[in-house]
Amino acid sequence: MIGCHVGRCFQVTVAGGSYQEGLTSVVQGVPPGLLLSEQEIYGDLLLRKPGADELSSPRKEPDLPIIYSGLNAADTIENAGNKNHTNGTPLSILIPNLDRHFIHIKQYQDTNRTPRPGHASYASFMKYGPDDDAIGAGIFSGRYTSTIVAAGCVAKKVLRNCGINVFSYVREIAGVRCPDIAAEKALKYTEDYKRMRHDLDPFYQQVYVKGRITMEMRFLDKTRILAEIEQEIDAIRGKGPQLSGDAVRDKYGVHPVVNCPDMDAAQGMVDACNRIAATGDSAGGLVEVVVTGVPAGLGEPVFCKLDGELGRMLGIGAVKGVEVGAGVAVKDMTGYENNDQMRAEDGKVVFDSNHAGGITGGLTTGQPIVVRLAVKPTPTIDKPQKTIDKYTLENKDLAAITRRDPTIVARIWPVAENYTAMVILDHLIAHYGYQALKAK
What is the pLDDT of residue 266? Predict the structure, then answer.
């Protein structure tokens, strides 16, 4: 399998599967001196994990990470203060599977002869044969996106130190669309939404805030605690702070379920999705990613254009389209309408619009980068479907499946956010090096 590596200067290799022992991100290109903790990585992972709300699958994976390598285990000299700082060597992040029980494995064993329409199970069987990791879809499961979130969390922290912010939110679900929102307002909203999720997540509070796992522990101590937590998942989930939807809105100023910076639109999305889910079906939608603070000239021409690199987010499961700026809407514009006219103000270049999404010729213009991802409806649905027996090619009926996400959109945005951060940091490292070598 050669498709699990990305990047040139900031490189990420992922491994694992939905019902293997867990998943792994190996990250190269992290600069030394970055203070890093498992708590902050989990702070991003909890945003995409299942079982968190009415729009997600009931699987109860806590997604608790362990940083295995790449950090100083102690101060390099006495009182140096660089314990738990990155040291420039490859950073390994492990995400063990804890909600992995035989009853669920048996369900897959009983149904794996009949591929689920819309899933990769038929194509992966044709590629890998009978040894294909078909339990929970293996690396083709949505669980593998946790590796992207973990690696991208590190990338975002580096970017923030450079004055660059990457954030994402849900733009549309089930035909209900969020109106245009100013970047500053959307960034503030997403930060408040994340704070709400951290405050109300029982594992964030019980495991990290209360110090059950700390960065002072050795790897074997952490795995011992994770083995205990595996037996306590339901008990810990029951300890989470309980706030009504109205209380969440009042306290945090955000919607309790969907990260959409217009709360009326967010509620409309939930209502529309629930109406579709009640029929046994599922809904798709749009996720929008915005990057601010990026210097002009970032990117490369032809094969490594920045917008082309962002198009790699088609590699995120369920994403079927990626557009930058106005995207496919340019087909209905004239050149005059589409062009982002510019002028000079107080020694700075100001654009009158941003149809290009902050990228022209594969290079940044200095405007915010705007990327949207089209997310398909969840293929696992509560309706009978036509399929085949992949061994005998007999026609079969696939029974309805109830353990599912009514929509994946509400869990894709943190994946898109962190994938974008990986791409931007990869190009930023090259950009800084190139600018430093330019003749003065």
Answer: 97
